[in-house]
Structures are given as structure tokens and as C-alpha cells.
């Protein structure tokens, strides 16, 4: 009897876990990858900026794993809605949770719940065509926007806001979203960091891309680009060098302007019925901690996008630490026959490829735990789902969705594919 494992989540962590199982298991293994959406690849499909085609090419690698004999993709199946933990443990020898970190952290300031104050992940999901976010979620009517955060996600967001929509035409941005980007009234974008430039979390490649924007002047205030580089890494020195070179630039009068700000923290979002302004306070470091100086500034923005970190959310019936926003584990082990991998295991750290070694560790733990155990009969997940009226989206269905997106791109004269927007469109494309 072969080992049967269920993986909950089809993003990089989930697919790398499937690959590790196929490579490490000493005997036959069957892996079912469960996903609540009809589409696989998670963050690679719905989190990577559309103009970063080299990173999106990781989907090709993940695709080959899902096509391995013994691996099944079951889309449209949600833990807690369609199946429970007990159901899965009855159908499999082990279950691995790989659902990532799906929501933004909050800033915890007054006015944060005003309309127009939103999580950067919502905006990323919007331009990436996530079915949870409708096309009319963002209208981009305000001439000024603030993006709070100085990491790679913030860089992606400001880059998409700053570009002319025509520059994104060859990407897979949904047509409805592209039309709204084309109608954008945004003229000024403020990217705000609480600390100095040496503390920013950019990667150098992503940062340099901002300086090459054809549609926006990138501006840094000379006094805010001063940095203490004592003991700084090569990456940090490179970032500061780029930022200081921007501080010496003269704006060229491009259609949009990006102001990269440091040593400023949001203290209040102002407005009656929606966001009308963002109040900032100048900061300084005191014994390694950020504190305010009592010097304030107000930006007349109509939208605030926060990108100050990510956190996982609890899964029904699965242990969860609110303090760390992770599933407590030991080398991936959660409880008997239950395991975890990816950001849900370790927090939102590392790059996409980090999930590969992380998944391999979890699989080593799983196989060690199950070695020598007597095989037990399994319930039939397919029969269980059928009894509940759940008909999973298969891998062949997913290929039909892919084909429909490629056909749409040809019809529109746009790149290799254009994402279908919404569950109904995707299910219709695969005959569901």
C-alpha cells in the first residue's frame, strides 16, 4: 500500500512539498494537492507583479511537479468549508498545511478603517486578477497616493501605480483592471519608511527598476538619504548608493512623480467619510528604537496602501499562535500525522525559493515519523466530496483555463496570456 498525503495549498510551499515527497519517499507515494481556488501556484500567480516575467516563470517549474505521476491537483476544495481536519486524517496517512501568509499587518493608527485605506495585498491581488477582488475594487481617482512600507511589495505597488498602462499591455493583467489603470488620475505617489534608507528591505534589482521608470520622476530628499553604513552589507550599501544618486537628480517633468521618504511614520489617517490626508511624524532612532520627534507633516492623499508586513490566518481545526501568526511546529511537525511548511510554518521570511528547503525539512520529519508504521485503510476523499456535492477542479480543468487565457490574449493582441477575472469566468472556461 502506498503512502497517501494531502497538501492543503498549491502555492510554492505546497508544490515544493509535493516534489520533496516524490523525491524522498522510499516507496510509492500518492499526493493530493488541495486548493480553494480553481487555479494553482498561489503567490506566483497572484502575488508576483505582472511585469516581473522572470519570477513568474517559476510557474513552469511548479507545473512540472503537478504533472508528476502520483500527484493530483484538486481545486475548489476548501478546508473548513468542504472538508475538515478529521476528514483528511481519515483519508490520508498525513496532512501538510501550506496556505502561506494571506493578509497584511495593520498600522494601528486612527483612521485606518476609513474607505481608501487598504492593504497593499488587496491592491496586488487586484492587479494580479485574484478572484476574491473585483475589478471595481480600485478606481484610482485621487491625484495623490501614499504607500506605507519600504520593501519589495511596496516597490511593486508603486511601480504599477507609476507606469503608463500601455507599459503593462503585454502582461497578464486582466483587461478590466488594465482599463482602470489606463484611467488612473494618480500624479504623485509617496512611499514612506519609518527608518532610514539603510534599514529598507528592498532588493537592489527591484530598487534600480524604479529609477528606470519612463513615466515617473523618482525623488529622494538629500537630508533623508543620509545613512549610517557602519557594518552594512553589500546589499544595503548598494541600496543607499542608488537612493543617494536619486537625491542628486533634477526632475525631468515626467507625467508622474514618486517621492521616496525616510524617517517618517504615519500617525493618523484623516478624513470624514473617506481618506483625505495622511499625517506623518518625523522619526529618529534612540537605542535602536524608532521614536517620534514631534515634527509633523500632512500629505493630501486620497488613498493609503499599507505594506508593513504579512501574517497568516488560522485554519479551522489547526493549532495557531496569535503571537507569531504561525502554526506551532517542530521541524514541520504540528501533531501526530499533521505537518506544516512555508510561511505558515516560519512566518513571511525569505524568497520563493526558500520554501524549497523548508518543504524538504518538513518532508524529512514526516517520513521519519511514518517510517515503520503499519499501513491503515483510508476513506475515499472523492466519494466524501461527492456526497457533499463538491466536484473538484482537476488539473485538466486548469489547463482549459490556461488555454482560455492564452486565447483571450490573442484576441486582444496582448502578450502570451490575459487572466480571466472572477470565479465564474474561470469555471465557465473549463466547462464547470
Tell me about this structure.
This protein has 15 helices and 17 strands. The chain has helices at 12-24, 43-46, 53-56, 58-66, 85-91, 120-127, 152-162, 175-182, 204-211, 234-247, 343-346, 354-370, 381-387, 395-412, 423-429; strands at 3-8, 29-35, 71-75, 94-97, 103-104, 117-119, 144-148, 188-192, 216-220, 256-261, 264-270, 277-286, 289-299, 303-306, 310-311, 333-335, 338-340. It has a six-stranded mixed β-sheet with strand order 3-2-1-4-17-16, sandwiched between helices. It has a six-stranded parallel β-sheet with strand order 6-14-7-8-10-9. Strands 11-12-13 form a three-stranded antiparallel β-sheet, with no helix packed on it. The longest helix is centred in the last third of the chain and has 18 residues, at 395-412.
Gist of the model:
The chain is of the alpha/beta class and 432 residues long. 32% of the residues lie in helices and 20% in strands.
